[in-house]
Write a structure and sequence with these properties.
Order of helices and strands: HHHHH
Distance between the termini: 47 Å
Shape: flat
Structural class: mainly alpha
Number of strands: 0
Number of helices: 5
Mean pLDDT: 83
């Protein structure tokens, strides 16, 4: 409904046909990784005052291009073996 109020019915319908909503639990490990990346963005790019939105947008775009070019990867520290140990009591034998 809020899409319709902002965009109008026709444009909202076009947009919503392209959107797929997925439930993701708050405790998901990918969310932790996203929060870490946002923290890096904050420290490296957003730690100063921006007077113009266009300048901020350009800086964030440039930061994102650099991060993607670095091809950083996530090193998962919670292994399958860790999960087996932690969740063992929940497994069905």
């Amino acid at each position: 409904r809020c899409f319709e109020e902002v965009l109008g019915i026709e444009e909202a319908e076009v947009l919503l046909r392209r959107v797929v909503f997925h439930y993701t639990p708050k405790h998901a490990s990918w969310l932790n990784m996203a929060e870490i990346e946002i923290g890096i963005l904050d420290r490296q790019c957003l730690d100063r005052h921006w007077h113009e939105r266009d300048a901020l947008t350009a800086e964030v775009d440039a930061w994102q291009q650099r991060r993607n070019a670095e091809r950083r990867s996530i090193e998962w520290t919670f292994t399958r073996q860790d999960a087996d140990r932690k969740m063992q009591q929940h497994y069905v034998s």
